[in-house]
Structures are given as C-alpha cells and as structure tokens.
Design goal:
heterodimer; A: MetI-like fold; B: 437 residues; D-Maltodextrin-Binding Protein, domain 2; five-stranded mixed β-sheet; disordered N terminus; ABC_transporter_permease (chain A); MetI-like_sf (chain A); MetI-like (chain A); transport (chain A)
Amino acid sequence: MIAPAMAFFVVFAIIPLAVAVYLSFTQWDAISDPTFVGLANWTSVLGDPVTIRSLWLTLQIIVVSWLVQTPISILLGAWTAGQQRNRAVLGAVFFLPLIFSSAAIAIAFKAILDPNFGLSASLGLPFLKQDWLGNQQLVLYVVIFIIAWQFVPFHTLLYQGGVRQIPASLYEAASIDGAGRVQQFFRITLPQLRYTVVTSSTLMVVGSLTYFDVIFVLTGGVPSNGTKILPILMYVTGFSANEFGPASVMAMILVVIGLVLALLLTKLSGFTKMTSQQEGA
Amino acid sequence: MTHSTPSIRRTLRRTAVAAGLVAALFGVSACSSGSGAATGGATLWGLTGADEDNVLTPSLKDWNADNDDAQVKATYFQNDAYKTKIRTAVGAGSAPTIIYSWAGGTLDSYVKAGKVEDLTSDTEDIKGKFLESVWDQGVVDGKTYAVPMNATTPIMFYWNKDVLDKAGVDEPKTWDDVLAAVPKLKKAGVAPFAVAGASKWPLLMWEEYLVDRVAGPEAFNKVMAGEKDAWSDPGIIKANEMIQELVDAGGFVDGFSSVTADSNADIALLYTGKAAMMLQGAWVVPTITQQAPKFAENGLGYGTFPSVEGGKGDPSNIVGNPSGYFSISSAASEDQQEAAKEYLTEGVFDDGYVDRMVESGQVPPIKDIDDKVQASGGDFGATVYDLTKNAENFQMSWDQALPPAQATALLSNLDQLFSGAIDAEEFSDAMNKTIGK
C-alpha cells in the first residue's frame, strides 16, 4: 500500500527538496550551469536586512492571523453547530468565501479598495477613503483582514464538526447542575475542542508561513516592501531576479521554520498522547 | 501461506501501477518540452495581445501558405508567464526554435551561455532597412544575435487637454513648468500626474527620463559598464531629489502606490479627468482608443518628456522599448534553424507585416516609411515615428537593459524612493551594492 504513496512523495517532495538544498550552495541563473559557491548565499541572505524584515512580517502575519481567526472561527463554529434552520442557512452563506479562488478574491478586493475608483469613490463614503493598499502602516492589516475573510469559513467548518462531536449528555449534566450557556461554553465546549484547536492552529500557522497568492496578486510586496513576506521575497529573488541560489536558501528557511513550528505545536499540545474524551470509546 | 500469495501479487501489481504512473509523468513532461523536433518545422513562442492578433498570426498564415519547406508554428503566452517559462526552457535546452526577448540583459545571458545562434552573416542584407538605434540592441560584442520583430514604443508624455484648459495650465515644456503646474492643478481639484506605483516599472520611466535630462546618457552607461559607485553619479542623485520633490509637492495622484498598470487604472485616471498628465509607454494608446474613443480623438495630448534647465541630456533623447526581438535557439535542429532564418529574414517586416502594423496604430522600426505612417498611422503614429527617428539617443528601458538581479533590486528601491522610505543618497548606496551582480 505504501509504495505508490512513497513514489509520489519521493518524486514530488524529496527530490525537489534535495535539489533546493544543492542549489542553495550554488550560483545559478537558470541559463548557464550552476557554480558552487559554498556558504556565500547563506551568509548574504541571513545578513540581509530585507530578509530579516520579511521574516518579521511573516511572523506578524502568523501571530495576528491566529489571534484574529481563532476566536471568530470558534464562536461561529459553535453557533453554526446548532441544528436550527436559520443557522444552517447562514452557515452555508459563511462558507462561500472558501470556494472562491484566491486570485479572484485578491482581484475583487483590489477593485473594492482602489482609492480612486473603489467603493469609497463610487458610494461617496468618505470614511472609507483611505489608501488601504498604499499606506505602509495600514496595508499589512488589510492583508490580514482579507486572509481572515477567506479562511475563517474553513476553520469554522472544523470547529462546527468538533462541536457536533461533543456528546449531548455533557451539556445535559451541566444544565442539571445549573450551568448557564456561557459557563457551558467555557467549561465544556472549549475544553472538548482542544484537539480541534491544535489541528486548526497548525493549519493556520503553517499556512500563514507559506502564504502567497492573495498577497502576490493584491500588492506584489509594495509599498516599500511593506507586504514582502518571505514567500514573496523568495519568488521575486528566484523568478524575477533569477538568483536561484539565494531563493533556495529562503526556501530552506521556510522548510525549517515550518517543520519546527509543526513539531512544536504537536509536541506542546500532546498530540501524540491524544485519546478520545468520549464515553465508550 | 495460501493467503499470502495473492497479497504479494497485489503488492507487485500496485508497484507496477505506481512505476507506470511515474513513468507516465516523466513521459508527459518529455512530450511537452518545446522544440518539437519530430515535426521538422520551426517553433516560435510569442506574446498574446497586439503581437499575436495584429502582427504574427496574419504574417504566419501567409508565410506558411507560401513556404512548405519552412513552416513556423507559433504558441502565444501572456507577458509575465512567458518571462519565467522561456528562461526555464532555454536553460533546459527545450526552447522553441524562435525565441522572443526584449534584448538587453536577458539576451546577454543567452549569448554568454551559448544558447542562441550568431545571425550576423544571415542578416547582413536586411540590416539596412531598420532604424539603426533599434537594430543595435540585438548586437552583442559586435555580432548580431537578435532581430527586431515588433513596434517601437518609446515612453511618451500624455496630458488631458480639457483638464489643463480648465486649470489654466499649458502643457509643460520644462521641469520648471511641471513644478509650477502642480499647485494650480491641485487647486483645480485634480491630481497633476497619474502613475501606476504598484506596478513599479512605471516609476522607472520617471527615473530614466530625469536622469537622462539632468546628466545625459553617460550616467546610465557607467552603470551598464559596471563602474564602481556608478549609481552615486551627481546627476542620478539630483534626479532622485527632483523625484522626491515632486512627490512631496503632491505631484502624483493620491494613493499612487496602490494604482496598477495591468488593470489600466493609471490610464483611466487620465481619461476620466481625475489626473491631468501621465508618463507611459506608446503601447497604451490602443487601450485608450478602445476604452475612451472620444477622449483619444479630441482630449488626448502627447509629446516628449519636458527638458530640464541646465541639464546635460539632449531633449530629443527618448527612453522605452526599441522593439521586441527574435533570436534562434542553438538547441534547435539544423532544419528548424534554417526554416527560422528564412522566416526572420524574409517573412518578418515584409511589406504586409509593415502595413498591418501601421494600420493598427503601431510604429515599425523601419527606415523611410514616413508617408505610410502619416497616411494610415495618424498623428500619434507620426509623432512616435519622428521622435524615434530623430532621437539623439534611444535608451532601452533600464529594467530590460540591466541583468535581471539588478533590475529587480532597482524596481524595489524605486518603490521605496517614491514612498519616501529612503532618500536619494540611500538609493544610490543600495544600488551601488548590486553592481556586478
């Protein structure tokens, strides 16, 4: 059973990774033959303030995205888990952004936020008249908002499933003991959801780390490198500047950080010791 | 033991299926590599848009009908997608027979790696019909590796006549006029200049013209020659200070760093009257004509970049794209190369080719076609042709002329210069570090 999976994994993951490791020690412009340069790419990339800045931006996106998306997703997930019809209908509506393509979302938001022809200009709403994508202080948060808009539905779905798995008997016992809805949420729903939180957070953190498409279409890294997160810097270095050596170094940095974060999250959350919390299982 | 035999057989079968799949994948990628050696004819990769619609498709239709022995088969790509695809294909030896490029740094790297053919002797006879400044871009170290294949598109200075009239401003002829016009236009409630800052390369047009007007072509020639600290030329620093002065005076439209060129938002600012003037390539005029035909006919003014008092650059100098170029891949078979050479010397820029271009408002880089351009290319075509023909110096856009690594750094630093994150000195320091990359 494992052979086909292994074959695909080797061809599409291990071999490219090995080639990237090799390229990170060479100078290569995709035209002539690679020349070995030792650690030169590594020292130049790690010593470049632009790399440090993009790492810092990436970190901000990871942390703020998690802080924004997790509470909203848990609350929406718990709410849509109810069986009432209006919740089912609204749940379906909330789900919509998830089925749009990232490029379409980015193009749509770019048009809406355009300072000259966007929503503020066409509706004449002065409080919306901001240079949302051109203001260095603002643009990162605008990007984080759009990412949240796109991905909250997915995490809501995870939490909805998680909440629906919690046995009704727990809530019945709690209401007999006189616990209100708020108490039930904090004493039963949240603790029961902790493995879902781990899954959702891992996806969120590792996903934010390699986030690319919406930001690339929306801003391409401008203004003033204000949204040039590491994956975009890597793309520009590789495919615009044709410096595949330094770009491979950046790819390796992303791989290492991604692995470390994923391992840390599973370790800290006791993923390996996970057992069912439910009766009879 | 009886039940393990089928399971072994199953495993074997699965392994075989997996191996087959992997083989199929490699097979697919092998088939998709571009040279298409099996067919014999030459292959060509070009760009979608005007090149495909008005130039190459009709030309190849005629060519292939008349030349059974030199068939050319074209595939077209969108601009940005082409840039990455062609580089990988050339590097891997699976390039099409006829390679499109913008010459400059990319062509240099092809030549250095021995990826394109020397066309010097094959093109000796046709060389004379091209404008010299345009032809020379395809020459590397005295040998011709690329021949012009499409319109010449210098960067032009555009204005909205109505907006300027209403604000009581004449179109600027000098940099002082530009600075004097800014407060008047702002008072009239319009942005003086539209510029697509989010796309970054439109910012470069300002840099190219101002450096040329202030310091002449020599300043950038030093950069191209890789001279140490070439970016610290006093002319370049002066030009960058002028740019920041214009930004600080509110010369560019509010939020210009989120305006993109690929959505034509900068053009829309001009024809909707939200902005008074714009610096852009000659290639935007067909788009303006399409989106705002009335404005294109009556409201659009155009000319060359204003002069700078006391500057060293000749005001007839222009910058922009001299042309697009075709080279022939060294990886192609001999038959393919022969077919390609025939097409490049006899098919490209034959009479029909030139006529179709002129009729669609494009300006071919060909000598002595003033009458044709005047007759069917209209005033804009004639202006572009005259500017190109009479230019003391035609500077290729810096992002094409420089090697890709330096060009990318240049655009990134310009974005920071225009947004005020760095000043003129810091710009020069950052760019000096890229010399020789």
